[in-house]
Design a protein that fits this description.
The protein is α/β, with parallel strands linked by helices and about 290 residues long. The protein has 2 domains: about 140 residues, Rossmann fold (3-Layer(aba) Sandwich), CATH 3.40.50.2020; about 120 residues, Rossmann fold, CATH 3.40.50. The chain contains 8 helices and 16 strands. It has a 6-stranded parallel β-sheet, sandwiched between helices. Helix 4 crosses helix 5. The longest helix is centred in the first third of the chain and has 17 residues. The structure holds ribose-5-phosphate (R5P). The site of ribose-5-phosphate has 13 residues, from strand 13 and helix 6.
């Protein structure tokens, strides 16, 4: 029997959630998730789920409210007899708080992983922010599959950018920048970033003015406040390099980040569709086609 799929928090016919369901030829589940007037959540499953394999495809950007709905849904599916629950969370939230930076802080990556591991049987995600953890297995107790959008990003660069120079704006982005550059067959460099606060970063730019003939392409996993990309683009401009293309896998664009980046007029912005946004230019659905 084909798996039953729940498309959660992905709106629109062309969203990644809808694309996956169509491409994998899954049966769309009938269900309702909504808020009561007092803000509490209402969850109802209409499809028959007993003994069935269930796939949840969830956009967990801004996860706090969504997570509770997900928990109610998972517990209900289990009560109704679902045989196995796979969660496809193309963007995996809460990965950046991977250490107690200050005494007393919650290491939310670990706590979130523990909660999620108690809800679903398997997790599939794309380019999670693995910085201090080498693998999701360090914090998730369920089987996990990690996919990478690097190949898709490399294809996009090959088709759209002439003489690219891939730039990772910080050491954490080295994993994306190096592999993408190898796939494109072009040079790359990784910069040093110092973060002074949520919206305050400093980029140390080496003298790369001899690379003026190249088209800089900044590659990073997450665009959140956009300051990493803006600061790097400003440094490139000072050196007289061409206007960079900024590619982020996960388009978080917190608060006014997108406007600030666009209005700076010093970059083009492209993202993958793990989180729906008008900058989505790389579809990740090919990554998921053979998986479930
Ligand atoms: C963290 O190190 C990530 O790789 C990104 O560089 C970071 O999340 C970007 O954040 P922001 O857009 O707020 O500068």
């Amino acid at each position: 029997m084909i798996p039953l799929a729940f498309n959660l928090f992905y709106a629109g016919e062309n969203s990644l959630g809808a694309n996956i369901i169509e491409k994998l030829n899954l049966e769309s589940a009938q269900f309702e998730i909504r808020q009561f007037p007092d803000g509490e959540s209402y969850v109802r499953v209409d499809s028959e789920v007993a003994n069935r394999k269930v796939i949840l495809i969830a956009n967990l950007h801004q996860p706090d409210h969504k997570f509770l709905c997900l928990a109610y849904l998972c517990e209900t599916l289990k009560e109704l007899g679902a045989a196995h629950i796979t969660l496809i969370s193309p963007y995996l939230p809460y990965m950046r708080q991977d250490i107690r930076f200050k005494p007393g802080e919650a290491v939310t990556s670990r706590i979130f992983a523990r909660y999620l591991s108690g809800l679903v049987d398997k997790l599939i995600t794309i380019d999670p922010h693995l910085h201090r953890y080498n693998s999701l297995d360090e914090i998730y107790s369920i089987p996990t599959t990690v996919l990478s959008a690097n190949r898709l990003i490399a294809d996009w660069i090959k088709q759209n950018v002439n003489a690219p120079l891939i730039i990772g704006p910080d050491s954490e982005s080295a994993q994306w920048a190096a592999e993408t550059a190898e796939l494109v067959g072009c040079p790359h460099l990784v910069l040093e970033k110092t973060r002074h606060g949520d919206r305050d970063v400093e980029i140390a730019m080496p003298d790369i003015s001899h690379l003026k003939d190249h088209s800089p392409v900044l590659v990073d996993d997450i665009i959140s406040t956009g300051r990493t990309m803006i600061q790097t683009a400003q440094e490139l401009r000072k050196l007289g390099l061409k206007t960079p293309t900024c590619i982020g896998v996960h388009a978080l664009f917190s608060d006014d980040a997108f406007c600030k980046m666009k209005d700076s007029n010093i970059m083009q912005i492209v993202t993958c569709d793990t989180i729906p946004h008008k900058t989505n230019g790389v579809s990740c659905s090919p990554l998921l086609e053979d998986l479930v």
